[in-house]
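Reopening this one. Same input as before:
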Amino acid sequence: MFFKPKKMKSKTITIASNDELRSKVNEAITENFQPTLAIVFNSLKNNIEEIQVLFNDKGIDLIGCTTAGEIVNAELFEESVAILLMDINRDFYTIKQTNHGDNLYKNALQTGQDIEALYENIGLIIMISDFAVDTASIVTGIKDGIGKEVPMYGGLAADDLQVEKTYVFSNTKMTSEGSVILVIDTDKIEMSGLATSGWEAIGLEKTITKSVGNVIHEIDNERAYDIFIRYFGLVDKSDSMEHLLSLQNNYPLQIIRNNDTILRTLLLMDETEGTITLMGGVNQGDKFKFSSSPGFEVIEQTISEFQDLKDNSPEVDALLLFSCKGRHLAFGPLIEDEIEGLYNYWKTPMIGFLAYGEIGNTPNGICEIHNETCSLVTFREKT
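Same output, byte for byte:
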């Protein structure tokens, strides 16, 4: 007798605190749904070790990170826990957790080489802690280690805008200086996705003439700090933090690379050194323009840009959404319209979080680290 292979199922859970954790997970597990994997996006308000204990007790594999807002299906939450449970075959995925170490690129390169050997064709979901490091070196190192472009999506862990310390975790480990990676066998589980922002370039094209990692020293052979002050002003130094937040949320750099544009958000400004530090590395010689949100219509534009993804993947089993906390700060409650619009394309179990940086493939298929961007990935078990 011929039996049709069981298709992967998934369920979402949202809880306000860990007090509800065990009961909600128990309710989700049934005779017909025995999850093997949990993806958890968790506010720092909730204890990570308690989450680890529960999923270890249940024999469920775990990956996750801390957040600045949690997404479950069509809704945005704060200071809560978002959980995606999946009954995916354990032969189809591997969890790998790494520490950054002293040499970000070298360690990431080794990680990529280790990952490449796991399956013939792979896709990655990656969460990174420590937003101040050059996360672009991590993404580039992993890609170089694999030796080719692969679907790679994820985000930089957050900490409810405390901007102090972020964490990634698995069943047994938790770190504020490392990454957790879900490696998918894409011959078994199809991954498709897109990262897009909708922000518009403004002003003349400029060149980064001196940089190290995510620190820019010179723009057009002039101190980078001086360029920013000339363009955006800083009248009263007592308001410097408020001014910095305004720049972060409203005027990211639009890096022009490989016929794509990649947004980089300002992290720090140093008047003495004349430098600016970005949330993601750049290359010396990169061209860029400043950018600005075109207004609230960017929400509708972003939703529409995922139409092709929906058309090419009309039926999926689960979704992950990584959206920048800066978009939330820029658009306020309208960010919920974006989340709802994306969910309504598929109406399939979806979780996500508001991140300090997003990882995803551009329309040209190149994986990059982004800021002020919305990155969505779909999963579908092949039968």
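So the earlier flakiness isn't reproducible anymore. For the record, The chain has a mean pLDDT of 91.
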